[in-house]
Write a structure and sequence with these properties.
Porin; Serine Threonine Protein Phosphatase 5, Tetratricopeptide repeat; alpha+beta; 14-stranded antiparallel barrel; 2 domains
Length: about 525
């Protein structure tokens, strides 16, 4: 999950000198008790040392010693801002504002909290109020720039951010990041890259440097294809072929169906996808699209298949670290020119970035499937399924590795009793560049599936029992780009299923290769 351009991707850092001045400016905000005042003085020292967790604990104790002390509430807000707990900070600062003599930095701290909550307009109003009363602080200009960036007022944002650098060059670590995001909003990848390179020159030892190297690699790819960043539509085309050892996934002991003389075949495949961004703002994106897949098999025309998908994707950024998504899709499949199935699915998801190297995603999928081929009542697969999945993504620092580990559970409710089942599984995925611009991707899945009722097919002993199936799949893919729009791929896929009912046993190997075009 990447941060959106208008949202802060780094927690602001206020210099030690400024913190010390803030902590020591203990102007009387009310008639505090001696215990509360002593604790605030103690917390001020921790705040000046940038030990924010300790400072918060001490300020909390001060507030407990004297709940009416507006000064304690203010400094609770100060510490909470620096810990990134902006909603809690805003609540304390609003309490402090009700005191008889609000702290001189109250508008600044309130603006900071509102900025962290993406309440851009309110944040700008507070910060402008503070700037008028206390002009010249670099951090004020930076925060104003970030608020204007969130509002989409790019010229005002640029002026404020550059003024922040003029006032305090030590702010380069965060200001340059937001200037880069601003240029990205303008679709100017080259200028965005220049800002990040300036950050590396001006603040190479800051935590921002680790993030910048990854960002520069991404911007390098954008710079190579500037047209793609500006258009709302996208298209992809794939053409390939290969060999499939078990086209219809039959078990070794299962007789071939009438009219089919073998299970294996070579094949040709074609894929196409087109999408259009109907609406795109700083926090929201709505995309609609169409996908097509087709495969034809040599000597097995009865297995030729094509599918058509219509989909809509909606994405909303609640904060820079919390993103929600919703996909609605309808997929229609034909086999040998005849209607085979139709599936409608809805998939909401929520992704949380816990750190710059890991993202957590929780998703739920509800699908309704209809199959048009005749089947005995017990083997009717029409029905609904519900799946819950959790996936953790990893991007280890100092490497180009991308990894994911996830678990899922599915409940299927079908018209036929054979396919009423429950399943759970584990997924693992890895992606890493190799040499000569080749990228390797490996994905593995293991699934445990158990039927809810005795199956209509007997097991090896002739008894009618519940189906229990363990299945595994392995996918390996190598991709190598040859131009901005073209790349080639080689792939190998293996799948197997072991069941207590031999009809559901199978092994399958698929080798493929082809060319990909993206526009």
């Amino acid at each position: 999950m990447r941060p959106t351009p208008a949202q802060p991707i780094l927690r602001p850092v206020v210099g030690g000198a400024l913190l010390a001045a803030l902590a020591c400016a203990l102007a009387p905000l009310g008639h505090a008790s001696q215990d509360s005042s002593d604790l605030i003085a103690l917390g001020a020292g921790a705040l000046a040392r940038q030990d924010y967790a300790t400072a918060l604990r001490v300020f909390n104790a001060a507030a407990e010693a004297d709940p009416s002390d507006a000064e304690a509430a203010f400094f609770q807000g100060v510490a909470l801002n620096r810990l990134g707990r902006y909603a809690d900070a805003l609540a304390r600062l609003e309490r402090a504002a009700k005191g008889p003599a609000p702290h001189a930095d109250l508008a600044f701290e309130t603006g900071w909290a509102l900025l962290g909550l993406n309440r851009w307009r309110e944040a700008a109003a507070q910060l402008e109020q503070f700037e008028k009363a206390h002009p010249g602080r670099g951090q004020t200009s930076e925060f104003l720039g970030r608020a204007f960036l969130g509002l989409g007022e790019l010229d005002r944002a640029e002026a404020a951010l550059k003024e922040a650098l003029r006032r305090d060059p030590n702010l380069a670590a965060t200001v340059r990041i937001h200037l880069a995001l601003l240029e990205k909003r303008r679709q100017n990848a080259a200028a965005s890259r220049e800002q990040l390179e300036a950050l590396l020159r001006e603040a190479p030892a800051t935590p921002s440097g680790r993030m910048v190297r990854d960002e520069l690699e991404r911007l390098a790819r954008l710079s190579a294809t500037p047209r793609r960043a500006q258009k709302p539509w996208h298209m992809a085309l794939s053409m390939g072929g290969g060999y499939d050892s078990n086209v219809i996934s039959l078990g070794d002991s299962t007789p071939l169906p009438a009219g089919i003389s073998r299970k294996h075949a070579s094949f040709l495949s074609l894929g196409f996808d087109a999408s259009y961004d109907v609406a795109a703002t700083t926090t929201d994106t709505l995309t609609v699209g169409y996908g097509f897949q087709m495969a034809t098999y040599d000597g097995l025309a009865s297995a030729n298949a094509d599918s058509h998908s219509l989909y809509a994707d909606y994405r909303h950024s609640f904060t820079s670290n919390l993103i929600g998504a919703l996909r609605v899709s309808d997929t229609f499949t034909r086999v040998d020119g005849h209607s085979y199935s139709n599936q409608v699915a809805v998939r909401p998801a929520l992704a949380v970035r816990l750190a710059d190297w890991t993202v957590s995603e929780l998703s739920f999928t509800c699908a309704r499937s209809n199959f048009f081929t005749p089947a005995p009542p017990a083997q009717d697969r029409d029905g609904r399924s519900h799946s819950l999945a959790f996936v953790q993504y990893f991007y280890p620092r100092g490497t180009k590795l991308e990894a994911r580990v996830g678990v899922f559970g599915t409940v299927n409710r079908a018209e036929g009793s054979d396919f009423d089942s429950r399943a759970c599984g584990l997924v693992i995925g890895l992606r890493h560049p190799l040499f000569w611009k080749i990228a390797a991707e490996v994905n593995c899945t293991h699934t445990w599936d158990r039927g809810d009722h005795a199956n209509s097919l007997p097991d090896a002993s002739g008894a009618f029992v519940r189906r229990r199936t363990r299945s595994d799949s392995l996918s390996v893919r190598l991709t190598r780009p040859f131009s901005d729009v073209m790349s080639v791929y080689l792939g190998y896929d293996y799948s197997r299923a072991d069941s207590n009912i031999s009809f559901y046993d199978y092994h399958r190997h698929v080798c493929s290769g082809g060319v990909l075009f993206s526009f």
